[in-house]
Amino acid sequence: MPQIIVIGAGGQIGTELVAELRKRFGSQNVVASDLGETCPTLLEGGPYIQLDILNREFVRSYIIDNGIKQVYLLAALLSATAEKNPEFAWKLNMEGLFTILDLAKEKHIEKVFWPSSIAVFGPTTPSDKTPQHTIMEPITIYGISKQAGERWCEYYFNKFNVDVRSIRYPGLISYKSKPGGGTTDYAVDIFYKAKEHKRYTSYLSEDTALPMMFMDDAIRATIELMEAPIIKIKERSSYNLGGVSFSPKQIAIEIKKRDSYFEINYEPDFRQAIADSWPNSIDDSAAHNDWGWKHHFGLEEIVDIMLNNVQPK
Ligand code: NAD
Ligand code: AKB
């Protein structure tokens, strides 16, 4: 069994990824790590270490001394939070990646997972069924950091044979843990507000369609990509990953079908410009052809699952 560490494990993706990795590879073989001194409840049941990815020397010695062979590097500032602190977002999103890529270049690590995002695309990108290879002129610091990260991943693969694998996640929808400061967070918040107050004020306009995905699909994609034979991985920047595509109005209609009292209104804020620069939908045929990717969850299923499971405080 490989020794695995998930860095930034306490966030929206990490809490569910750690649980799935532990199921597959054994609890003791998957170390969860995050900034907090104590282990978050959702990560209990296996090893936890307090680790700051910006502490390069500590990260290096922990990984080398403990014989860690696979790293899932999730720590980052997401799009909306990053716009409020661009210098720090650049530092966090890039420096951690170099620390891990260098460990892999030195052959301490065998495999790296590093997530990219639909934020790598920009207003000049074709926005419907955005292709794998296309114009990429991101306008957010988050998107710029992800695009640069993709180029560095491909560079480390080409120059140093580093086995780094990546997915351009769309907006992720989950009920086990909340999102951490992205533009697509509304598609989770809306369920909490629907259950609590039967109304939601959307910070995106009604027809802003964005690519989205249910977390179970995203976790399955991540592990399928990491487990795929090396020969099948043709894209060493990052894979487009499609799921569903919908707007606030479309998700509100689905909620209203299940709760006729639900109401939505629209007050776009600074996140509207970010969303306007991102694709409406994604062409993921490269992931499908190379390693067999196919999403399972559609909008109606997602709405059913979310309404049945979110638990507002
Ligand atoms: P999140 O904000 O929910 O979680 C990030 C975690 O990283 C947090 O628990 C945070 O405490 C931790 N962290 C922050 N700084 C750290 C540091 N210095 N050292 C160690 N840990 C630190 O984010 P997420 O939604 O789980 O996203 C994980 C990754 O996936 C990110 O790289 C993000 O860009 C990418 N991604 C996420 C989505 C999405 O919709 N959730 C979509 C596309 C890409
Ligand atoms: C965000 O909105 O910042 C993230 C993402 C799509 O990368 N959910």
Could you please say which CATH topology of the largest domain applies here?
A: Rossmann fold
Low-confidence stretches: none
Proportion of residues in extended strands: 15-25%
Total domains: 2
Name of the CATH architecture of the largest domain: 3-Layer(aba) Sandwich
Helix content: 40-55%
Count of extended strands:
14
Alpha-carbon distance between the two ends = 39 Å
CA radius of gyration is 19 Å
Write the CATH homologous superfamily of the largest domain.
NAD(P)-binding Rossmann-like Domain
Compressed to H and E, one letter per element, the order equals EHEEHEHHEEHEEEHEEHEEHEHHH
- Structural class computed from helices and strand pairing: alpha/beta
State mean pLDDT (0 to 100 scale): 97
List all distinct small molecules, including ions and cofactors, that are bound in this structure.
nicotinamide-adenine-dinucleotide, 2-amino-3-ketobutyric acid
Quick one: biggest sheet?
A: 6 strands, parallel
From the spread of the alpha carbons, the general shape counts as: globular
Give the neighbour order of strands across the main sheet: 3-2-1-4-5-7
CATH top level label of the largest domain: Alpha Beta
